[in-house]
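Final report, results section. Input specification for complex C-07:
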Amino acid sequence: MKLQGYEHATPDRLDTTFAALADPTRRAILARLASGEASVAELAKPFSMTQPAISKHLRVLERAGLISRGRDAQRRPRKLEAKPLGEANQWLERYREFWEENFKRLDALLDELKAAGKKRRPR
Amino acid sequence: MKNTGTLQVSLPNDREILMTRVFDAPRDLVFDAFTRPELLKRWFGPRGWTLDVCEVDYQVGGGFRFVLRGPNGAQIGMRGVYREIVLPERSVHMESFDDYPGESQVTGIFKENDGKSTLTITVSYPSKEVRDVVLKSGMEHGAAETYDRLAEMLAERGKTAEVA
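Structure output:
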């Protein structure tokens, strides 16, 4: 079933976001950036990875619009971009809302069936 | 409605999505509402859509065929085969959509306590690859899974990053 309201985030954007989030290291980088911006060197340290390896992950995150570069020209710190993440959370919430809406109709139907008593139950 | 808002969505592992919901009715009624066409037609589908085609051959090995019609001639077709039926406790079927690749297994477990029923639905993809194809096509199941991970990650805000 397709969700309504899907157009809020374009499919292309979602694809890119999904791909970027599919990697545990990249999710950990985002978690780190959630507590404040950090330079490539600062990011590389806790991950025991080389800076080029971290830079590769950062490029993927940057392309997905999940992070951007801060103002400091020397450190070139990376920071978290809220918008795609917000869209991502909205997606999950929409999934829940979609089913909840269905289930509310089902609640009403079940009330009706209960009131009608245990009639026919062929099968 | 008393149980409005009791729907929970979670992710038991890489391939699955899990939903739990309480209904204020005995489970045989809930079970019927999920398996009988005349009842399914009254609640199943997005708002503004009707379940125009609802053919159900409810037996192990039997199939179902749904066509939902929405605004501006939009149409969603889905089909599947029933794998396991234990009345009125458990129902397992395979499910796929006409316009999207990938097949998922859907397991419904109906439990009753004090006249209320707790329904647990698990949607499982056969592999990460299939899930990723579904995910890429924008289907909500795969999307929700990835995004739930994201929600977990955000819940960990402020913690020192670790390599997973």
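The longest helix of chain B spans residues 140-155. Chain B touches chain A through 60 residues (CB under 8 Å). This concludes the modelling results for the funded period.
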